[in-house]
Design goal:
The complex is a heterodimer of chains A (259) and B (257). Chain A is 34% helix and 24% strand. Chain A has 259 residues and is of the alpha/beta class. Chain B is mainly alpha-helical and 257 residues long. Chain B has one domain. The longest helix of chain B has 39 residues. Chain B is elongated and about 65 Å long. The chains are: A alpha/beta (259), B mainly alpha (257). At the A-B interface, helix 2, strand 6 and helix 3 of A face helix 5 of B.
Chain lengths: 259, 257
């Protein structure tokens, strides 16, 4: 990773509201080539919305998102598809296609590009499954036949199969036991390093953030309130960041609990 | 002022929803005629809508034909017009009851299943996953269902017509004592190409409406399991109402002199 190079993803003043509720109120963030950035923040602070705006799944209300120097806010059609081809995404709930077996799930993105035939796509899918620690015996299973951890691995394989140069991870360890969460974290670190990819993850799991990030940014009330290297986060002089990383109920961040 | 506001809000909401549906339909149709085509999905939907709906459509048709024969006979007996039973059964089934009842049965079975499947894909982010894998969700999910609905409903109605007329034949011959050969001759003589073709055109339109409503409500579902349940109900109700509404419009176009 290098910060001398121009950012791989450059976000400026990104805004997104749903009705009267403002979720992103002007997000500024740079992610450099080969870097792994983790955005942390409480539930409902707009972390997933940020990822979806970058991928074009949601349309931003204002601001700018540049990927490799190209503005992608408002971009649609074939050019948007071309940009998405350089990206991989691991969804929070895995989002595997129920109606397709594991092998076809992993090969899906490869076949969608129409650059290789099914035989070659299947071979690549099997190689990628092996990278995430799954052997060919699961290839014919349907997602519903797999455990949550295995589904996460298949989803990771699907995100990696097309060798993307940007990978997004949405809450990669949510719902997993601590051991499986650590296995997934290790796989994320290893596979993104092997690919030389740029990674943007969102999580509220601090153990996961410390493991996979080069830099951490904290999203609060629609803005990035702090960004810095992982090693610096314990020395931050910001009560909101401190409250979040130590998981304390008392502090400036007040969660509304409706009974 | 409150009532006026409510009326205005309802009107704007209705226009907005109609506009969204028309845009969705236009985009779905555009994807039906522009490559790439997902042939495997189209074949899967043809089997799902056509083959697996055969039992329910067949049973509906045979009992409808039987009841129609019985009712016509008892009704026409008052005017000594029992001889018209074969004609009434054939024309009613081919023009009206075959397409409408098959449409309503398929709307209940397929419209609900489609809305539930696509709705679940929406709330579990599978539709978003399609987009991130460079696949247009409408082309992959909606277009194959629309194509299959338009192709397979007329075929189902053709089968329903034959079974329905056969149901009328069974009751007329074995219960009411009609001569089999005379009954069949009357049936063939009564039917015109226009009767059959108008029914098949209606079926194609109904096939489009059923799959469109299933896809539209599923695609726009939100709010987890409750949202999927709501989408399923809306798909069946709206498809059924549209079938009856378009049935009148098409009948007016075909037969109003």
């Amino acid at each position: 990773m290098t910060q001398a190079a121009p950012p791989k993803i450059r976000i400026r003043g990104l805004k997104k509201s749903f009705g009267t509720k403002t979720v992103l109120a002007g997000v500024d963030l740079d992610i450099y080539p080969g870097e792994s950035v983790v955005v942390i923040g409480g539930s409902g602070t707009g972390k997933s919305v940020l990822l979806k705006c970058i991928l074009g799944l949601l349309e931003a209300d204002g601001g700018s998102i540049e990927i490799d120097g190209e503005e992608v806010v408002g971009l649609r059609g074939r050019r948007r598809e071309e940009i998405n081809r350089s990206c991989g995404m691991l969804f929070q709930g895995s989002a595997l296609f129920d109606s397709l077996p594991v092998l076809e799930n992993v090969a899906f993105g490869l076949l969608a590009r129409k650059e290789i035939d099914r035989k070659e796509a299947d071979a690549t899918a099997l190689r990628t499954l092996a990278q995430v620690g799954l052997d060919a015996s699961v290839a014919g299973h349907f997602p519903s036949q797999l455990s949550g951890g295995m589904q996460k691995r298949v989803a990771l394989a699907r995100a990696l199969a097309t060798s993307p140069n940007i990978i997004f991870f949405d809450e990669p360890t949510t719902g997993l036991d601590p051991i499986m969460a650590d296995i997934i974290n290790n796989l994320i670190v290893k596979t993104t390093r092997d690919l030389g990819a740029t990674a943007l993850s969102i999580t509220h799991d601090m153990a996961s953030a410390r493991k996979i990030a080069h830099r951490i940014a904290m999203l609060y009330q629609g803005r990035i309130i702090w960004a810095g290297a992982v090693a610096e986060i314990d020395d931050v002089d910001d009560a909101r960041v401190n409250q979040f990383i130590h998981g304390r109920a008392e502090g400036p961040i007040q969660m509304t609990v409706e009974v | 002022m409150g009532a006026l506001q409510a009326l205005g809000r309802f009107t704007l909401g209705f226009i907005g929803r109609t506009g969204r549906l028309v845009l969705f339909a236009g985009s779905g149709v555009a994807h039906c005629v522009r490559p790439p085509f997902y042939w495997r999905n189209i074949v899967r939907q043809l089997i799902e809508i056509g083959y697996f709906s055969l039992p329910v459509v067949g049973l509906t048709a045979i009992f409808t034909g039987m009841v129609l024969a019985l009712q016509s006979y008892t009704g026409f007996a008052r005017f000594s017009a029992e001889g018209a039973v074969a004609k009434v059964v054939a024309i009613s089934i081919t023009r009206e009851l075959g397409p409408v009842l098959a449409g309503l049965m398929v709307a209940g079975r397929i419209g609900a299943a489609m809305a539930a499947e696509i709705g679940t894909m929406r709330v579990t982010e599978q539709i978003d996953a399609l987009t991130t894998l460079s696949t247009n969700p409408k082309k992959y999910l909606v277009a194959p269902r629309l194509i299959a609905g338009i192709i397979v409903l007329p075929l189902l109605v053709l089968v329903a017509n034959v079974i329905g007329i056969f149901g009328g034949y069974l009751v007329s011959v074995f219960k009411l004592g009609f001569n089999p050969a005379t009954y069949l001759q009357s049936t063939v003589a009564a039917l015109t190409t226009e009767d059959v073709v108008s029914g098949l055109v209606k079926a194609a339109v109904f096939g489009f409406l059923i799959t469109l409503m299933g896809c539209y409500h599923g695609y726009h579902s939100k709010g987890g399991a409750q949202g999927v349940g709501r989408a399923t109900t809306n798909a069946v109700v709206s498809a059924s109402i549209l079938i009856l509404c378009f049935d009148y419009i098409l009948t007016e176009l075909f037969f109003a002199k």
